[in-house]
Amino acid sequence: MTRSQIGKVYEGVLNQLKSYIEYHQLKPGDKLPSERELSEQLNVGRSSIREALRAMELLGLIETRRGEGTFMRAYRPHHMVELLSNFLLNESRTREELFTAKQMLEKEVVMRLLEKLNDKDLDMIEKIIENKEKEKLHEEFFQFLFERSGQPLLLSMWQFIYGFTHTVHDIQYEKSWYQKVANVLKTGDQIKVLQLFSS
């Protein structure tokens, strides 16, 4: 069998597994059938099933628990990006450009939300700043802002770029920085937004 044919078989098994998961409406935490059962149900070899499951595990879509089986897991958008970044981010210039792009997107979402958040949103921001541990604060803070912006494409772009930059930059600010951003969201001062993202 040629490499091209092997690739087509492999893709076909992945598509069958995808259809199986959709048909049975499997959710994070649900258990997948064993390799043998999947092989029989999908009418493909166990080795092909095993390879497809490995690929799905690498992508963070499933997890294997020793002695328990294989389970669906919540997709983490950064997981695959972190793996890819180890191969792709070799040029320091590329890293700096990604960091700049991330800052531009974050500045844009703050600009879009100036004086547009309600009291409930602002309370939630205060809770995130107050309760989140330092290493998770940046991600949770901007994840919330991008979700509230109603711009799913911007959210996806930010998640993708953040995933890359997170692997090469230690993105941490003091809580006082996030508090300043929260205050600007209330007051609508565009000059202060530019100042906050200028460093």
TrEMBL record:
Alphabetical UniProt keywords: DNA-binding, Transcription, Transcription regulation
InterPro entries cross-referenced by the UniProt entry: TF_FadR/GntR_C, Tscrpt_reg_HTH_GntR, WH-like_DNA-bd_sf, WH_DNA-bd_sf
Residue stretches in coiled coil: none
GO molecular function term, any single one: DNA-binding transcription factor activity
Domain of life: Bacteria
HTH gntR-type domain sequence ranges: 7-75
Name assigned to this protein: GntR family transcriptional regulator
Native source species: Halobacillus mangrovi
